[in-house]
Amino acid sequence: MRRHDHQTTQADLTAGAVLAPYLQEQAAEFLRSLRLHHENSAPTDAGTHAAEEAAGALRRSSRRIGGTLHTFRAALDPAWAEQLRTELAWLSGTLAREHAYATRLNRLLEALHALSGTSLPTARTGSRSDAAGDKERAALGVGAARAGALLERQLTLARTRAHSAALQALGSSRFHAVADAVALLASEVPLAAAATAPAEEMLHGPADRAEQQLLGAVAALPPNGAVEPYNEAQDAPWHRTRLLLRLHRYAHEVVRGAPDPVLVAPGHALDTHRDASEAAAAAASAARTPRIAPATAYALGVLHADQRHEVEAARSVFRESWPYATAVIAP
């Protein structure tokens, strides 16, 4: 509520008076999430649902603090802001890996089930094309179970290692230094002398630049017809757009007091794009496992193609939901 009040009177406030409460709120959320994570974690298991939720909240507050330090660094102590931003990026990246492997495995197993379970129409005739289709479906049915087992082994192992790495990170002196820095931030924000300038003068310029970077990235995305669906190298501009959208969202929260609702759907589409892209890469990686059966490799190939189609679908959803249509057209 306090930030909404700021929105109407921001012309009368200094940059520090707008920026400090936002950062302190996010720091307090970080500390709450950390306490919940400690209360619900056990070193012997892969984490309870409550611990996973707390880790998610910890990642979100880390990203918001880090993004705000990046965008509005001119209003903050520069050395402190850069140091804490770097450390928060390390922390959120470390914590994100376990969640990413679990999400990827669920996505791939659900896709395999859909591909093998619902694409088995009843055979009507003995024509050669039907026979060929039946043979492909049979191969997919045989290979899907083995492919699922292989993915489960590989991604569960990766998730377990990521869980161990996260626990190790949370017990490290490096993490304790980050937590101490955030605890200090919750009570006092190291502002630059320039933060005494009006908020509109100091904060709106960086927020506008974050928005322009996003609009430029969207405008540079290649049109649908120019993209090869299976060329993973063409995913990079979309991943960059996703990160720039996140920075813009956080900047909007600071200067407007609330997220921009029109960017929820495009943001979700870019998250789906990232998830499908990474799932496709995991299927391709599993298919390169030495000495797997041909049926397993076939199922993984079908799965890879399915996830690349999901990538294309997410791009279409993004274009349809993007609220500034003229910016989507590439020059």
Question: What do you see in this structure?
Answer:
The chain has 331 residues and is mainly alpha-helical. Helices cover 75% and strands 0% of the residues. It has ten helices and no strands. The chain has helices spanning 2-9, 15-40, 49-71, 78-117, 128-170, 173-187, 199-219, 236-256, 264-287, 294-321. The model is unreliable at 1-9, 118-128 and 327-331 (pLDDT under 50).
List its traits.
disordered N terminus
Shape, principal axes of CA atoms: globular
Question: What letter string, H or E per element, gives the SSE order?
Answer: HHHHHHHHHH
Q: Give the strand tally.
A: 0
Main sheet makeup: none
Protein structure class: mainly alpha
Task: State the helicity in percent bands.
Answer: over 70%
**How many helical elements?**
10
Instruction: Report the mean per-residue pLDDT as an integer.
Output: 88
Low-confidence stretches: 1-9, 118-128, 327-331
Note the beta-strand portion: under 5%
N/C terminus separation: 42 Å
Based on CA atoms alone, the radius of gyration comes out at 24 Å
Task: Give the SSE map.
Blueprint: H1 2-9, H2 15-40, H3 49-71, H4 78-117, H5 128-170, H6 173-187, H7 199-219, H8 236-256, H9 264-287, H10 294-321
Helix pairs in contact: 2-3, 2-6, 2-7, 3-4, 3-8, 4-5, 4-6, 4-9, 4-10, 5-10, 7-8, 8-9, 9-10
How would you sum up this structure in a few lines?
The protein has 331 residues and is an all-alpha fold. It is 75% helix and 0% strand. The protein starts with a helix and ends in a 10-residue tail after the last helix.
